[in-house]
Amino acid sequence: MKRVLFKLHAYSVAMAFLFSIIASCATAPVTGRQQLILIPPSQELALGLKSYREILSKSKLSQDKEIVDMVNRVGWDIARVTSRDYPIAKDYEWEFNVIDDDKTPNAFALPGGKIAVYTGLLRYTKDEAGLATVVGHEIGHALARHGAERMSQYLLAQLGQVALNVAIEDQSPETVRAINIAYGAGSTVGVLLPFSRLEESEADHIGLILMAKAGYNPREAINFWERMAQAGGKKTPAFLSTHPTDEKRMAQIEGWMPEALSYYKP
Asked: What positions carry a catalytic annotation?
């Protein structure tokens, strides 16, 4: 009887979750891709702000006025056209910071328009157009709510594993353990990593359009990614990478270039 009740409970939870999924469809800007986002915008913004504050509290912020001014200038140029053209961004409280770390060629975006650029990336951006490539890409992540989408994917993966365990509960412990290990690897390589690569490409696409709308030459995006590709370092196999390969990334950007140039007014 307990087993039957447990299965009924698991089934009812799964059905309730399914209905919430049906009601949680969204559309990514620029690309029009259909998304599944289970996290409410208010919770997403609160989590983004909390994480941003925690990261900045543990980081050394740049005191170089010229660099800070440049990042804010480029950031606000792109933020203005983003808030103007995409309703979801009207509630964003934009913030741009520079983290003083020359060894880290990186930048990140958190929900709600919280952007940070590491000084180690500036040797690759070279100029404001190169920087606009990075900032546009990061704002693309925030605009498409990729953080909330990623959290939703993990929630679904966890639900799938719970359902799997209900289905195989009569199997031996060794079989259950082996199936769970296989499920974990399959969901990561087969679902979560490809979604991550898709989101990276989508941020490239959105960022290219945003930088063009803000008056930055989108052709400079190719030059920036070429410099990043030439930086070297160990490459992760494409099927295990969270990012598209350098070659695929630049080929995609070339494909989107006519669209971006249609918005570009120097």
From this structure: 138
